[in-house]
Design a protein that fits this description.
This protein is α+β, with helices and mostly antiparallel strands and 122 residues long. It contains three helices and seven strands.
């Protein structure tokens, strides 16, 4: 599984869409935490060919507490260990509301959305 989401680098180069993949998963079961890192690549060929990720195109999540238990106990999906872990990581990233949308709710609190809210799963 991968995520397609536009990315603009610091020089203004636009990648429509960039190809986001899970590249690091660290699980600390004793501490109940998971560290996820996703990088964006120009396209699937760049990722599969071992090319460098796009400069500045990284997203990290640190999952702890109840979120750790929810992610760690999910039913596995995938044909390999990498597929199972990456699927779980990318599912979490799609659902995590971690970016301020710029809007506020009726109580005046920021409305949060997922960084990957406009991403397409492939």
């Amino acid at each position: 599984m991968a995520l397609l989401k536009n990315f603009t680098d610091a020089s203004g180069n636009v990648f429509e869409p960039a190809y986001w993949r899970t590249v690091q998963i660290n699980i600390g079961s004793a501490d109940r935490n998971i560290n996820l890192v996703l990088y964006a690549y120009k396209n699937a060929d760049a990722f599969n060919g071992g090319k460098q990720a796009l400069l500045g195109a990284a997203k990290q999540y640190i999952i702890t507490g109840d979120e750790f238990l929810a992610v760690a106990s999910e039913e596995p999906v995938g044909g390999s260990l990498y597929d199972v872990l990456a699927h779980s990581a990318e599912k979490y990233a799609l659902g995590k509301k971690d970016v301020d949308s710029g809007e506020v709710d009726e109580d005046g609190k920021p409305v949060m959305v997922s960084f990957f809210k406009d991403a397409q799963q492939v």
